[in-house]
Amino acid sequence: DHDYFKKINVPFDRPLPLVGNLLGIVLQKESIVEITTRNYYKYKDYKVYGFFNFLQPSFMITDPELIKKITIKDFDHFLNHIEAFEIDRLFSRTVFAMRDKKWRDMRTTLSPIFTSSKMKIMFGLLGEQSNDFVKFMHEQVESGKNLNVEVAEIFSRYTADAISTAALGFKGESVRNEKCEAYTILKLMQNNFNGSLGALKFLLAFTLPKVYKFFDIQLVGKEVNDFFKRIVIDEINLREKKNFYRPDMIQLLLQARKGQLKNEEINENDLSNFSAHTEFDVSLKNEKMSHFEDLDWIAQGFVMFGAGFDTSTDLLQIICYELSFNKNIQNDLIAEIDKIDAVETISYETLHKMKFLDMVVSETLRKWPPAGQLDRCCNKEYKLDLENGKSVIIEKGKNVFLPVYQIHHDPDYYTEPEKFNPYRFSDENKENLVPGTFLPFGIGPRACLASRFALMSVKLILVKILNDFKIEPCEKTPAKLTYQANINFKFNEKIFLNFIPRSK
Ligand code: HEM
């Protein structure tokens, strides 16, 4: 219905048949960043505009106040992600794709796993893994290899190990052995989602969901399914039988499954963790908890890997990229690190007291948000109040998108937005940030479940690398980064950087 937005007085661009307003994506000519940026500025004064996500009329909400309203205050109208995420039997059971009461119950069950008190327990496991990574870098240098490397490649192996050890209950070995099982599975998963066949399946799920369902197409392969069954269910059973304890997420999942976990926060008031998300209580009081099956728990193991792998790797590589070009900032960060005695055994508190580190990470997440767009599906009709008494009705079932990347680059909120400037997040300046304009981990009760974990693991490895190495651009370092012409927020360019041992 091409007149959909005209009838409800919402500005929009005329769509084309089938592809809607996403011709540039289908022809692989434009990235989602380019398409959204154009309309963001064109329609910014209206606070909301319409576009056709293939056949579906959808809303883009550009105003931070409205974004806060729908994601926090009136959250119960926009509880879920869009339905296209129910694209696979395993994936649809992850807390990311679950809907309504099931989601509330699963989120309530899992959230104690990611509180600061539990992060502190997991910190020890990450310490070992990160020391091992730095040792591996030194070994490379000692064996005469230079460290002129493609950073996503080595960092993805570190991230795999960090998630393996902390989330999945076994010590990772991806850094030293890229043929190991966990890394192979991760690569398969990446391919299931981002490969050309995966992209085609997503496209079909968006454009012709009935056809997708009819042919019972799945996204996740059998090897991946079997792997997670083994590491989650078999491992939980084994631990119960043998009374074996390891301070990782599998242990917490085991307790969470029995409803034995409590929400304990440690006092974080004097810690610097600006981007971390604060959990909301989404439980329905006086209602019985949903029953979850083995497959639901397997899916949560899967999502820890799936949601954390690319995002954390991207963040890590892009911080290093920015630091390589911004020498002064890198030196200031190194100066902060050099104030710490024994970086190898740095504590959770000390890491989270590093103010400049926190500023650098926040600024990277602003300039290069790994998830540059958020989505919600309206599950209860909603009256979106605009100014001057005007309003728009969003019907049940319609999708709403939030332009994170564009807000993070809007000069109204961030002066000289293309400049990498961590001082935007200094104690004085962060007071002046406009609420609702910093969204790297999403916003509201549906935001990232594991922001604390992601921030902790990225900060830790960064501190350990910079304690021993300087990061410099090399011949193959791209001068500029451009986004791929699809919806994935991935770069066309591979980032190569040079790690040079520091003489101390
Ligand atoms: C730098 C790394 C990461 C970034 C930038 C990131 C970002 C995000 C974003 C933007 C969302 C959607 C939020 C929304 O719609 O409001 C999300 C959801 C989620 N993330 Fe992360 N994430 C990261 C790392 C991780 C890690 C390491 C894990 C797991 C170990 C994880 C688990 C999840 C889960 C389970 C959800 C779905 C939550 C729900 O729907 O209830 N993420 N993340």
Care to give the gist of this entry?
The protein has 19 helices and 9 strands.
Describe the protein's topology.
Layout: H1 4-7, H2 23-26, H3 32-42, E1 48-53, E2 56-61, H4 64-73, H5 100-110, H6 116-142, E3 148-150, H7 151-166, H8 181-194, H9 196-207, H10 209-214, H11 222-242, H12 249-257, H13 294-325, H14 327-338, H15 348-351, H16 355-367, E4 374-377, E5 382-385, E6 391-394, E7 399-402, H17 404-408, H18 427-430, H19 451-468, E8 469-473, E9 496-501
The structure holds protoporphyrin IX containing FE.
Family: Belongs to the cytochrome P450 family.
Membrane topology: Peripheral membrane protein
GO molecular function, one term: oxidoreductase activity, acting on paired donors, with incorporation or reduction of molecular oxygen
Descriptors for this entry?
4-stranded mixed sheet; 9 strands; about 500 residues; binds protoporphyrin IX containing FE; alpha+beta; 19 helices; 3-stranded antiparallel sheet
